[in-house]
């Protein structure tokens, strides 16, 4: 009931006001981002809030919310470079987490084989996203995360609330731009000169790992088109039930 009450109140606020509320209300708050357009809008908003806070309190500018970036090792080079550039541009602390005991693609494939995303997609998602995210949350004492998910992205995101409680783990997820559409996001990026991934100017619409992301040659209205082409899939596992993903991975490992 309390969560429902909060969402009713938050839905009437602008994303900036939602973020201001979260900063003073939610302990252990971080932004998880792969530096897509929505994540970059949130990062820019947080930067402005941080600057206003410093001016009001007469302190040196300090980005108030640290960033978590999950480096799957299969990101486009442009994405990895953008993560570093954005962190520097906004003076935002950046925590990078990779698959356990892996620094390179070669390390990962030596342990798990090549093209794991084709042979065992769920295990791949667990190893490159789910496990590193839980490790990040535990090491950094994360209690709440800001995500860039929006309802207009459809799929499993079509009915998300601004504030969610993850089943099992108790992690709070804040989706401040849940009610924004792509046009608003794009307009903000342009109006505020926010740095973004150059691949978006080459036909890519939603950017993930290079092996599961393709540019578009059509006028599809779906924001997530180009991801996991030909598969009935809209999420990488990061926003699925952690314990189910973990149990499935352990079962698959034992079977193997």
Automatic annotation (TrEMBL):
Origin superkingdom: Eukaryota
Segments forming domain Phosphoadenosine phosphosulphate reductase: 30-215
Biased composition (Basic and acidic residues): 221-230
Listed GO biological process terms: sulfate assimilation, phosphoadenylyl sulfate reduction by phosphoadenylyl-sulfate reductase (thioredoxin)
TM ranges: 21-43
Keyword set, alphabetical order: Membrane, Oxidoreductase, Transmembrane, Transmembrane helix
Pathway: Sulfur metabolism; hydrogen sulfide biosynthesis; sulfite from sulfate
Region annotation (Disordered) ranges: 211-230
GO cellular component, one term: cytoplasm
Molecular functions (GO terms): phosphoadenylyl-sulfate reductase (thioredoxin) activity
InterPro entries with a match to the protein in the record: PAPS/APS_Rdtase, PAPS_reduct_dom, PAPS_reductase_CysH, Rossmann-like_a/b/a_fold
Family: Belongs to the PAPS reductase family. CysH subfamily.
Protein name (record): Phosphoadenosine phosphosulfate reductase
Origin species: Glomus cerebriforme
């Amino acid at each position: 009931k309390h969560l429902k009450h909060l969402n009713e109140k938050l839905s009437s606020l602008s994303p900036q006001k939602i973020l201001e509320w979260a900063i003073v209300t939610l302990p252990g708050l971080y932004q998880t981002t792969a530096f897509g357009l929505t994540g970059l809008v949130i990062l820019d908003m947080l930067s402005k809030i941080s600057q206003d806070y410093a001016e009001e309190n007469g302190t040196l500018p300090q980005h108030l919310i640290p960033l978590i970036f999950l480096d799957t090792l299969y990101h486009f080079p442009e994405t990895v470079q953008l993560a570093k550039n954005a962190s520097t541009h906004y003076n935002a602390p950046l925590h990078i987490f990779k698959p356990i005991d892996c620094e390179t693609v070669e390390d990962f494939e030596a342990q798990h084989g090549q093209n794991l995303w084709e042979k065992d997609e769920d295990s791949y998602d667990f190893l490159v996203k789910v496990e590193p995210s839980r490790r990040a949350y535990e090491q950094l004492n994360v209690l709440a995360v800001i995500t860039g998910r929006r309802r207009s992205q459809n799929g499993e995101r079509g009915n998300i609330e601004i504030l969610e409680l993850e089943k099992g783990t108790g992690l709070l997820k804040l989706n401040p731009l849940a009610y924004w559409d792509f046009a608003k996001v794009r307009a903000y990026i342009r109006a505020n000169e926010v740095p973004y991934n150059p691949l978006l100017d080459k036909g890519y619409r939603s950017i993930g790992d290079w092996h599961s992301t393709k540019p578009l040659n059509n006028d599809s209205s779906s924001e997530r088109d180009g991801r996991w082409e030909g598969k009935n899939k809209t999420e990488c596992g990061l926003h699925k039930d952690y314990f189910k993903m973990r149990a499935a991975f352990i079962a698959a490992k034992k079977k193997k």
